[in-house]
Design a protein that fits this description.
This protein has helices spanning 18-21, 48-56, 81-97, 115-126, 149-163, 231-240, 253-258, 286-302, 320-331, 354-368, 436-446, 458-461, 469-479, and strands at residues 11-17, 31-36, 61-66, 100-107, 136-140, 168-172, 191-198, 218-223, 266-272, 305-312, 341-345, 373-377, 396-403, 423-428, 450-453. The protein has 481 residues and is of the alpha/beta class.
Length: 481
């Protein structure tokens, strides 16, 4: 979804969108999905194996399903004191190790459970005290039937209305029926359990594979197997299928390999672990630490990489404390993988909000220094209401984010106060091979600072590389003025 700086007169704009670009839209890396349906007891004694496993396995992500009583318990209640104590300990471990996510169990009855009961469970989890509050919902007994897409979209909308847009959504249908299941469920879920069955029934063909049903957004729950998990089965899950991400930066290989191969292109890389940096004051997970460090090392040696952290602003409506928390979290990342600025998404350019965005930028520079790289992404420019003042405190503004069919030079404001060499274009839903005349318009006719092109629709354009990624880069190089 976005781009960089200047070198030549053009940059390759790229957004590493959550574990989906790194692996899957925050599909957890080398993840363990754990149905924690065990009562913690006094002093959390029944959870001690989990408490010791989390710090001992820093390269594993733990997606932990909290389930006090086939859900959160009575409507509007807090969990009992043992849950409060022990879930708080899990959250603390997650914050310090960066490898834990907690989600709350909600039964849906394959779309037949009363909506009011589902909403009550979701609202009850959302009202838990922040110390032990979960970060999303695990919808069990989930349907993937095409006739119930709107029903489940409604459930997810309810979660996001009370938890926020960063809420982690998991569906558990436990199976996938190619004749009736709809890939639309992947568009609003972070993870789908497409296999829950015995070890003897496990087989790779159980998992749908395709652009609209990415394996890296799928999970397997296997029971009734040998005491010692067979290594070939685990290899099938993590390597052959690549379920729920991987831990070797393989999903970024197309980026890592091209950076040194295109030394005249600048790469402005937007890092986005989870629609932002993740939990307030947390470090990124082990995979992000490893892979972003690789990008920084490449950038230092090739001199053509800049990394910035994704922060959503809600067109000026998101709470300032949440924006500041995201910025502060990125700023506190270890220097080896810390970004060099911020990418403000859902940005407004309305004249009435200039001072609001100026304050966002001042907050960044207070923490990152005056050289922090600032990008705004309004995705459009309205000549009747947009203010050129935004250019005075931004390094780059994405003034076009739309389909290839809507791309036109007139979309970009041109003038001394709205310089084209501070603007970027993000184009999706185009031909597989980027049309050279359009790339020439970007690099020469307009002279934009940065661009990104994908043949894929917006539902997947920011979750995977374009089909002809190298072709896009080649055309950028060949058409540079």
């Amino acid at each position: 979804m976005r781009t960089l700086d200047l070198l030549a007169s053009l940059l390759a704009l790229l957004m590493c969108f959550g574990s989906q670009y790194l692996a899957a839209a925050e599909t957890l890396s080398s993840a363990v999905i754990l149905p924690l349906y065990i009562y913690p007891d006094d002093n959390c004694t029944s959870w001690t194996q989990l408490f010791s496993a989390i710090p001992s396995n820093p390269s594993l992500e733990f997606l932990i399903i909290v389930n006090p009583n086939s859900g959160p318990g009575s409507s509007g209640s807090q969990p009992d004191s043992n849950y409060q104590n022990c879930v708080t300990q899990l959250r603390t471990l997650g914050t310090s190790n960066g490898n834990v996510k907690l989600i709350g169990y909600v039964r849906t009855g394959y779309g037949t459970r009363d909506l009011s009961d589902i909403t009550a469970d979701v609202d009850t989890y959302a009202a838990w005290n922040a110390a032990y509050k979960v970060e999303g919902i695990f919808f069990d007994e989930a349907s993937t039937n095409a006739t119930l897409v709107d029903t489940y979209q409604g459930y997810v909308n309810e979660v996001k209305s009370v938890f926020g847009d960063d809420a982690y959504i998991t569906l558990n249908p436990g199976t996938w029926d190619t004749s009736s299941s709809s890939s639309s469920y992947f568009s609003f879920s972070d993870l789908i359990v497409t296999f829950e069955n015995t070890f003897s029934n496990f087989e790779p063909s159980a998992f749908p594979s395709g652009t609209s049903t990415p394996l890296k957004k799928q999970a397997a729950i296997i029971h009734t197997g040998p005491v010692d998990a067979p290594i070939d089965t685990i290899n099938t899950i993590t390597k052959t299928l690549g379920l729920a991400a991987s831990d070797d930066c393989a999903d970024w290989s197309q980026l890592i390999s091209v950076i040194p191969s295109y030394p005249t292109l600048e790469f402005l890389i937007v890092i986005n672990p989870n629609s932002g940096p993740g939990t307030n004051a947390s470090q990124p997970d082990a995979n992000y630490q490893t892979c972003v460090t690789q990008l920084r090392t490449l950038g230092n040696s090739s001199g053509n990489v800049k990394m910035i952290g994704y922060v959503r602003t809600g067109y000026g409506k998101r709470d300032l404390t949440d924006i500041n928390a995201d910025v502060n979290t990125y700023a506190a990342w270890n220097a080896a993988y810390r970004p060099e600025g911020i990418f403000f998404d859902e940005a407004s350019t309305d004249d009435a909000l200039v001072e609001t965005y100026q304050s966002y930028v001042e907050g960044v520079k207070t923490l990152f220094g005056d050289n922090a790289y600032i990008t705004l992404n309004p995705g459009t420019w309205d000549s009747s209401s947009s203010s050129s003042s935004y250019f005075t405190f931004s390094n780059l503004i994405v003034t076009f984010e739309n389909t290839y069919g809507n791309f036109t030079p007139s979309a970009f404001p041109s003038g001394a106060s709205t310089p084209l060499n501070q603007q970027a274009a993000i184009i999706h839903t185009g031909p597989v091979n980027p049309p050279v005349d359009s790339i020439t318009t970007i690099t020469q006719t307009l002279g934009l600072a940065a661009s990104f092109y994908s043949d894929l629709p917006p539902s997947t354009a920011y979750n995977q590389f374009p089909t002809n990624w190298s072709g896009f880069l080649d055309e950028l190089v060949s058409t540079q003025a």
